[in-house]
Specification:
eight-stranded antiparallel β-sheet; single chain; alpha+beta
Amino acid sequence: MKNFYLLFFAVFFLSACSDAKLVEISGKTMGTTYTVKVIAPKKYSKDKDLKTEIDKILKKINSAMSIYDKSSEISVFNKLEKNVYMKISSEFLSVLVLGQKIYNMTNGAWDGTVGHLVNLWGFGNQKNKFEIPSQFEINEKLALTGFDKIVILADEMKIKKNINNIFLDLGSIAKGFGVDFVSDFLKDEGFSDFMVEIGGEVYVSGQNIKKEKWKIGINVPDSSAGLEDVISIINISDKGVATSGTYRNFFKTHEKIYSHIIDPKTGRPVNNSLLSVTVISGSCTFADGLATGMLVMGADKAIELCNGIENTECMTIENQNGFKVRYSRGFKKFVNMGID
């Protein structure tokens, strides 16, 4: 009888899988790449139409939040004089409102106005000099930093700045928003099983083609590691995942490493033992911004903060004569102990 049940399960499983197919779509957006995997009915034949719609969505988000597009909403805002209100799109507003929440939640560790400082240290859209700026130069840019200098009138969909020359850059949260926006589109189209990834930020819904939870790898936090080199694999469903790290984009001088992640309080690259922070939450946008803020805060404060946020977990990896991995209270339940 036992063998009968095993055979029945195998036949049922194969039959269930045969009714569906994996549709894979990929492309370029936001200065990086994206991948979408959708479990669709076997007879589904609108793969090209789906890609066209996804590309339209991502182009729309880019036209709102790309600092490299001179006509984007964010570029127009950055050129705006102080105390002049600007009407904005619902997409731009959504990111700003959530950014404001993360800014307050992290006590300013996440700040979307550090763009001048990022450029000063050579990590921005200017020619990278990778030179250590003077304290005078840092102080000049710090005076132009602070997300609290942006006024958001959500009901009227308008924003303004309290000082001139503030530079808003939402690169640390925009990819997560793109992931969520595409995910919402797929749900509206009737799909319940899918994965959306932009530049490493991910949202997964339902199950994969094997009728299992989706498996997401967390990269080894080392500059020499390839994308296939993972330190951990997590099993998740209906969650967003984002990782922020200091190990990919940095420069080294006089034996000291300077990361592209800037501490908004000091105006300098973060100076703690953290190599990466991975956040799991219901929203990839939230996970994306929070991971950056936590990287600035350091492991102790990051885990303490995460333990107080509902439906959110984190994993930190520190450089402590090797990798030191720590988890928030509920993260470990997602970890796949047998990496495969």
